[in-house]
Each structure stands twice: as C-alpha cells, then as structure tokens.
C-alpha cells in the first residue's frame, strides 16, 4: 500500500532506480545460476565420491579375497609339499626294500649254490634208494630167472624120467604079458595032456596067482594114478611158477617202461625248467635294469622335487614379500584415500555450510533488497550508495567464490586424476596379482602333473614289486620243482649214453637237414639268378620289340615314300594341300593314321 501510495510522487526516483534494480535482478539471477551450478557440481562430486567409495570397497574386498586365495593356495601347497615329502619317504623306504629284495649276482649265485646243495642231498638219497631198490629188484629178477630155469630143467628132467619109467614099465608089462601068454599056452597044453586033479590044483594056483596079479595090477594102477597126479601137480606147479615168473617179468618190464617214461618226462621237464630258469634270469635282469632305471628316475625326481622345493620356497618368500609390500602400499593408499575422503567430506560439509549461508544470505539479501526497494524512495541516495557498496562487496564475494570454485574444481580434478591414477595402480596391482595367481595355478597344475607322474611311477614300482614277488613265488616253485628235477637228474645219468647216441643220430640228421637247407638255399640263389636272368631277357625282349617296332615304322615310312613317288609330286601336292586346309586335330589324326601324310609333312 505504501508502495502504491508513493508510486506517483516517486516516479522520478523510480526511473533512476530502475537500472540498479535490473542490475540487482541480474546479480540475483547470476547468483542463483552459480548456486545451481555449485549444487550440480556438488551432486556430481557426491556421486563420484560414492562410486569411488564403492570401487574402494570392491578393491578392498577383491584384495581380501586374493589374500584369502593366496593363503589357501599356500596352505594347499604346504599340504601338498607335506604329502609329497611323506610319499618321497615312502618311496625311499620302498626303494630300500626293493634294493634289499632285488637279487644281486652274488646273492643269486649263493642262493643257487644253496638251493643246489639243498636239492642234491634228497636227490642223492632218493637216487641211492632207487639204486638199492633197482639192485634188489635185479637180484630178485635174477633169482627168479635162475629158479625158473632150474624148475624148467627139473621139470624137463622129471618129464624125461617119467617117460623113461613109463617106457620101461610098458616094456616090462608087455614082457610079462607075453610071458603070461606063453605060460597060458603052456598051461593049456599041459592041461590038455594032464589029469583033472592036477589041473584043478593048477587052476587054483593060477586063480591065486591071478588074484595076486589083480592085486598087483591094482597097486600098479594106483601107483600110475599117483604118478599121473604127481605129474599133473608138478605141471600145475610149473605152470603156476611160470605164470608168476611171466607176471613178475611183465611187471618188471612195465616198471622199467614207466621208469623210462618218467625219465623222459623228467628230462623234458628239466629242459623246460632250465628254459624257464633262463627266462626267469633274463626277466630278473630286465627287472634289475628297470629297477635301476626307476632308481635313477626316483633320484632325478628327488632332485626335481628339491629344486621345486627350493624354487617354491623362493617364490613363496618373494610372494610373501610382494604381498607384504602390496599390503603396505594398499594400506597406505587406503589411508591416503581415507584421508582424502575425509578431507573431501569436510570440504563438502564446508561447501554445504557455505551454500546454506549463501542461501540464507541470498534470502536475507532478497528481503533486504525488498525492504530497500520499499525504503528506496525514502533513502534513495543512501541505498544507492549502500547498493553500490553491497554490489562491490557481492562482486568481491562472487569473485572470491568463483576463485574458490575454480580452485575447488582444480583440486577436485587433481584429486580425481589422483584417484584415477590410484585406481589404475590398483587395477595394475590386481592384474599383477591375477597374473601371479595364474602363474601359481600353472605351477600347481605342473606340480599336479608331476604328482600324477610320480603316482604312475609309484604304480609301476608297485607293479615291479608285485612282479618281483611273483617271481620269488615262481622261484620257490622252481626250486621245489628243481628238487624233483635233481632227483630225476641222477636217474637221467644212466640214460646219458643212449641220449648221446640219439644226439649223434640227431646231429647226423641235423647235418643232413643242414645240407638239405644249404641245397635249398643254393636252389633259391639259382632261382633268384634265373629270375634276374628272366628279367634281363624280358628287358632285352622289350628292347628288341621296340627295335622291331621302330624298324616296322621305318619300313612303313619307306613304303610311304615309295607311294609318294608313285603318286607323283603334283597330284600328291594337290591332295595334301586340300588335306592341309583341315584343322589341327585332323592333321594330328592323319599323323597318327596315315603314314603317307606323315611322310609328306616330313618331306615338305
């Protein structure tokens, strides 16, 4: 209301104050724009500060994770190193055990001598027992053969005696029968020429004599039956003895054949066992070679493990130093960043307080400007002076604020560049840490591959140990079988002469087969020579065939020239001029087909 009342009287003054009011409005607008610009700068700085804080927390988390991973990797490496040391100790113990178990040539010779001595004693005893049994069987066989011959001769003698006695008794009985017939005839003659009383007496005497003769005949028949029974009994006994002797002889022959077969089988078994023993010696040599190779590999692996341990220790110490150095640098950078962040926060707070003060000052100035505008009509000159002073003061303040803003922007830009540099350093450190981690992972992978190789070699050593145990078991079985072979060796000595004879025959046969093989080789050489000769003849035949073909071609050319001469030069030229107008393909065809055309081309 006051402004409206005093408007018309103060028109002169308002015209003078309009320019100052416009300048004041411009200054207010400029201040507001500057405050908005400062507000946007503050917001951008706040956002950058938040992003930098997030990046710092992320880098700190990544650094902690890398430190934790490095610590875990170091613990894993320590555990792997302890396991490798334990496995190395186990390997060394196993290697010592294998060295103790491996048969050296001296130990093998001693063991062979001991085994041979242990095997020869029971073999000798068994051989002596077998010789005693063979001698006993031989003596029994000789005794049985002697008894058989004696019984056979006795049987023949008894049979001859029995035949002789039978012949004598037959002759005697025939003589007695003839005498009795003569007596009968005499008695008949006497009976015819004598009286009955005498005949009766004679008949009675003859009857008595006949009874005596019958009794005697019965006694003789009983004696003959007894002799026949004795003969049959002696024949049965002789047959039984002969059967027993034949059975004993067949048994002894079967025993001899079985002994021969056993000797042959033992000889074959001895040869097989000798070959197996030779193979076992070769395998033992191969195993000793492989064992020495494995020892060399184990020693090389030990050297590699020691070098890896040393390099790992050096790398671990270097990584520890680098970790400690990087940790100190990161902590220092963190402290500096924290200090910068604190400084920036304090600067932001100061800027906020300054902005609040500026806002309050601007509000107060606006109010004061309104009051001054309202009171300008009364205190126009004083206000203009004060406004000029305030303007100068505000300009100075604005210049100071602008300078402060420029300095703040420069410091913010420097801090931003410093932060970017530190972030770049942190990224480079992270990349180096990642590279170191990748190197450590590669080393771990290499060590895992070496561990796998070591495990494979350990498995090979275990296989070799198992093969050595199997060979020791086979050696035990071979020693057990060698005992039997040594037992059979003594029995085989008896048949050595025959084997030598067989060897002579085999040698003769082998010489014959060698001679046949030489003849076969000569025949093969002759065949090869004949094949070469055949190839040469084939080559000569092909060359001669080519010569004949060339001669035939030459003859055809000569015939073609003769035909050309017969045709005449003019007609032939006209003919071939017409032919020359054809294509190249037709000329080639004529070259191939018509020798006359070919000769014309050659002549032309």
TrEMBL record:
UniProt-listed GO biological process terms: cilium assembly; establishment of centrosome localization
InterPro entries registered for this protein in UniProt: Centro_Cilium_Assembly
Entry keyword annotation includes Coiled coil: yes
Top-level taxon: Eukaryota
Keywords: Coiled coil, Cytoplasm, Cytoskeleton
Subcellular location: Cytoplasm, Cytoskeleton, Microtubule organizing center, Centrosome
Assigned GO CC terms: centriole; centrosome; ciliary transition fiber; Golgi apparatus
Keyword Coiled coil (UniProt): yes
Coiled coil spans: 35-101, 127-311, 341-547
Name of the protein: Centrosomal protein 83
Organism this protein belongs to: Sphaeramia orbicularis (orbiculate cardinalfish)
